[in-house]
Amino acid sequence: MKLQLSLFLFVSILFISSQAAEKKVTGELTFYAAGDNCPPSGEIAYPGLHSTAGGLGTYANPITVAASTGWLSAGKRVYVAAYKKYFIMEDSCEECENDWDDNGKYHMDGWIGPSTIHLGTTNCEVALSLSSTQFIIDPLSTYTVDTTAFFNGTTGACLKTPDNCVDQGNVCGNTCQLPSSMSCTSAASMFLLSETRFKALNPTLDCTSNIAKGKSVCQSGSCGGP
C-alpha cells in the first residue's frame, strides 16, 4: 500500500511539474512565406530541427516560427490553441524584435510555406493573422493537433478564406539585400514581379547597369509577397 501511494505521489509530482514548466502569454501571431524572405526561399536564421522552414504542426514536427530572441530562444516550442498547432522558434523577425524591444510585446511570425514564391500567400497570411491569441511556451506534448496546412502550395487553398489585399500605390512592403549582382530584369523575376512594377517600387535604381551585390531593394508592395 505504501509503495502504491509513493508511486502515485511521484507521478502526481511529475505531472504538476510538467504543467508548471509551461508559460502562457498573450501576443500577436502573423505569418510569412517564401515571398517575404530575402532572398525568397525557406531559408531560416536558426536551423535546428529543420534545415529550412517547414513543419506539420505536431509536437514532433512543429512549424517554423520567427520571433524575438528576447523572449523566445531558438529551438523553443510554442503551442497555439487557436490553430491547434505546435511551432518551433527557428527564424528571425525584425518587426517581432522591435515589438519586444520597444513595447515588451509578444509577437510571432509563423511559416505557411511553400519554399518557393506562390501567388495567394499574401492574402492567406493576412487572413490567418491574429492580433491577440494565447501562446503556450514549453508546452506539454499532448495537446490536440490539426495538421491541415495553412497554405496548400498545390491547390493554392488557404486554411481561412482570404480577402484580397490591395497594394497602396508604390509603397514598399518588404526590402531585400540582393545576394549577388544582377540586372533589374533578373531581380524582378526573382521577386515574381514585372520589370515595370519592380522599377516603380525602386524609382531611384539605375537599371541601365547591374545592381550591386548587397544593395537593398524593394521586393514587394505594401501587402508584401507577390
Characterization of this structure:
It is a single chain. It contains 5 helices and 8 strands, in the order H-E-E-E-E-H-E-H-E-E-H-H-E. The protein is α+β, with helices and mostly antiparallel strands and 226 residues long. The protein has 2 domains: 116 residues, Beta Barrel (Barwin-like endoglucanases); 50 residues, Membrane-bound Lytic Murein Transglycosylase D, Chain A (Roll), CATH 3.10.350.10. It is globular and about 60 Å long. The N and C termini lie far apart (67 Å). About 6% of the residues have low confidence.
Cα distance, first to last residue?
A: 67 Å
Largest sheet: 6 strands, mixed, barrel
How much β-strand is present in the residues? 15-25%
- Derived from helix and strand composition plus strand pairing, the structural class reads alpha+beta
Radius of gyration in whole Å, from Cα?
Answer: 21 Å
Inertia-based shape: globular
Order of helices and strands: HEEEEHEHEEHHE
Please report the first level of CATH classification, the CATH class of the largest domain.
Mainly Beta
Total strands: the figure is 8
Signal peptide: 1-20
Keywords: Signal
Write a brief structural summary.
With 226 residues, the protein is of the alpha+beta class.
Strand and helix layout:
Blueprint: H1 2-21, E1 23-32, E2 63-66, E3 77-80, E4 85-91, H2 94-103, E5 107-111, H3 121-128, E6 130-137, E7 172-177, H4 184-190, H5 195-201, E8 216-221
Parallel strand pairs: 1-5, 2-4
Antiparallel strand pairs: 1-6, 2-5, 3-4, 3-6, 7-8
Helix pairs in contact: 4-5
